[in-house]
Structure formats: structure tokens, C-alpha cells
Amino acid sequence: MPAPPRQASALPFSDRGELSAALAAVLTGGAPPESLEGLAEAAVARAADPVRDDDVQLSLFLLYAQHYGTLEQLDPELEWSPELLAVRGTLERAFEAALREQVAQPETPQPRAGAVADALFTLTSQPSGPSLAKYVAKKATCEQVVEMLVQRSVYTLREADPHTWAIPRLTGRAKAALVEIQSDEYGGGRAERVHQHIYAATLRGMGLSDEYGTYVDHVPAITLASFNLMSMFGLNRRFLGAIVGHLAAYEMTASIPCRLYADGMRRHGIPDEVTYYFDEHVEADAVHEQIAARDLAGSLAEDRPELVEDIMFGAAACLTVDGAMGEHILRSWKAGQSSLVRPLVDVAA
Predict the structure, then answer these.
(1) Model confidence at 330, in pLDDT bands (50, 70, 90)?
(2) What's the gap between Cα 307 and its chain centre?
(3) Helix-helix angle 240-252:221-235, to 10 degrees
(4) Would you state the pLDDT for residue 126?
(5) What integer best gives the mean pLDDT of the chain?
(6) Does residue 120 carry a pLDDT above 50?
(7) Which residues of 33-67 are buried (b: 16+ CB within 10 A; e: fewer)?
(8) Nearest one of 88, 68, 70, 110 to 26, comparing CA atoms
């Protein structure tokens, strides 16, 4: 007997334009996937900047969510729908084109592990503007600390997953290095130490929800773009070098900020069991940055020299988009405003 028709189920967040509204209706089983390509082309044409466009970024977020499986409202039968893949391709081409314009391509080092690692350390050591982490450590109010946690939740409740897509596409030394990093991210075989779970405990400790998708309505498009960037790199085989470079830059710029975030939380009397996520990353990321730069990115460069330019692009894209997200948050706070697009209610700080 054929399976009964799937009942539409509401998502925990609202649409942000014609395309994301139509996609939500299709993906939750409430409409057929027809005429979406025309809506995607129209959304791209309307977007002054696809990186910061609400409709484009929420639509990409929905399409990528199909592959992660975090939103149970989405119909799994549509994961490989040709119509939806065509829409994703249209949006990704616009997203990539905007990134290519906005990200300064670093100089390409020689395809040697040491040279690539040195280039990545040089790139990630360059100041990219005022530090959000330093502000949290010294000045942020408790309400702003909560906002920081909400902004980070879109990615961190899925921490490591976008980069894991690269594992089957790597071989040899680079594959072993990525598995070593990801094993730590997933708790080394201990469920209670999985970084996603530790962050969920931090959210609960601050009176926030740990249910994925709860705060999508509250974050700006640039926050969605930060997660969509690594999803696009991870899910597309042609971006193998870029996802490796992205991970390297992410790990190489995480240790010190995590210490500062923990300091800022303790300044408000937040207990160690709630700050533990950030404390754990101070040491872990200091180790991961060496593995990511030399054993992962450096080895991949030696094995596949044609990917060196993409490795550097991925690293620069990470710094550019995450930097833009941090700048938005910091600019909002310094102006006496919330960094969220919709206020939080009933949050026990």
C-alpha cells in the first residue's frame, strides 16, 4: 500500500520573502515544488547583496537543513528533488559570486605544508577590526552575553557537522588529520563531551532553549550566511579546498576568543558549569589549529597543489563573513541597540 500523504507541519520560524515562504510550504509538505526556479531567480535579482539578503540566506538555510536533518518538519522525500537542487544551485551561484567580490583573495603560497601553514597563520593573525570577544570580556551586559549565545547557536548546535562532509573526499594524511579534529569535536566517543551537547547545556544554563531552529527568527541574515558558507563549502565537492581552509581559519581564531567569552560570562557571576563550553575550547582549539594548518591544509596542499588557492580562499571567506557577523553585533551594541532582529522574551539571564 502507498504511504499516506505527509501532513504539513509548521516550522519554528517565519519566512523572510517570497522564495523562503514558497520553500517552507514545499519542504513541509504543503505545496508541490513547482515554479520555484523562477522565484529563486527573482530573489537573486532583488538582492542588493546576497550575503546579507534575508530571503536568499533563509532559503539556503532551509535547503541545507534538508541534508542535516535537524528540522523534522522538512519532508525527507524531497532531499534530492531536482527542482529543489536547481533552486539551491541558483542561490549558491549568487552567494559565491558575491563572496568572490567581497573576499580579498590572499597570495597563494607554495604547495608545501610549511608554506601553507605559515600563510594561514599570517592571514589569521591580521587584525580584522574591533574584537567582539574583547568587548564581551570587559563591557558586555548580561543581556548582550545572552544575545551572543543566541547568535552563535545557529552554527554551534550543529558544530563540526559542515566540515565533516569533507572526510570522504579526502585521502591519506589530510583525511587522518580531519578525523582527528572531528573526533574531538564529537566527544572522542563520549556523548556527554560532544561539543554540540555541551553548547546545548550552556544555553539551558542561561535560560535559553536548546531546540534547534528556535532562534532563527531572531538572528540577522549575516548570521545565517556564516553557517550557510560552511554548509555550501562542505556539501559541494568542488569546494573541497575551501572547506579545509575554512576549518583551518575557524580553528586558528577560536582559542583566545573562547577564553575571553568565558571571562565575560564569569564577570556576571555565571558559574563554571555554564561557561564550560568556552573553557573546553581554549585548550582544544589551541591543539586543533596546529593540526588544521599543517597536517590538514598543509598535507592537502602537498597532495593536491591545484587546491592551494581554494584553501586560502576558504580561510579568507571564513574570516570575512564571520568578521561581518561580529561587526554587526558590536556595532549594534555600541549604538545602544540589540544585535537581534526580533527581541527575546521570557529569558532568565
Answers:
(1) very high
(2) 22
(3) 130
(4) 86
(5) 94
(6) yes
(7) beebeebbeebbeebeebbbbbbbbbbbbbbbbbb
(8) 88
Q: Where are the domains of the chain?
A: 18-102, 113-334
Q: Residue 113 corresponds to which cell in the numbers above?
A: 605544508
pTM above 0.85, yes or no: yes
3-class SS string, the chain: CCCCCCCCCCCCCCCCCHHHHHHHHHHCCCCCCCCHHHHHHHHHHHCCCHHHCHHHHHHHHHHHHHHHCCCCCCCHHHCCCHHHHHHHHHHHHHHHHHHHHHCCCCCCCCCCHHHHHHHHHHHHHCCCCCCHHHHHHHCCCHHHHHHHHHHHHHHHCCCCHHHHCCHHHCCHHHHHHHHHHHHHHCHHHCHHHCHHHHHHHHHHHCCCCCCCCCCHHHCCHHHHHHHHHHHHHHHCHHHHHHHHHHHHHHHHCCHHHHHHHHHHHHHCCCCHHHHHHHHHHHHHHHHHHHHHHHHHHHHHHHHCHHHHHHHHHHHHHHHHHHHHHHHHHHHHHHCCCCCCCCCCCCCCC
Place of cell 575550547: 281
Beta-carbon count within 10 A of 319 CB: 22
pLDDT in tens, 77-87: 999 999 999 99
Classify domain 113-334 by CATH architecture. Answer: Up-down Bundle (1.20)
Give the C-alpha separation, 312 to 293, whole Å: 11
**139: pLDDT strictly greater than 80:** yes
- Please tell me the total number of residues recorded for the chain in this structure: 349
Q: Tell me the per-residue pLDDT of 237-271, one tens digit each, with 9 for 90 and over.
A: 999 999 999 999 999 999 899 999 999 999 999 99
Q: ∠ CA 163-112-246 to the nearest 5 degrees? A: 20
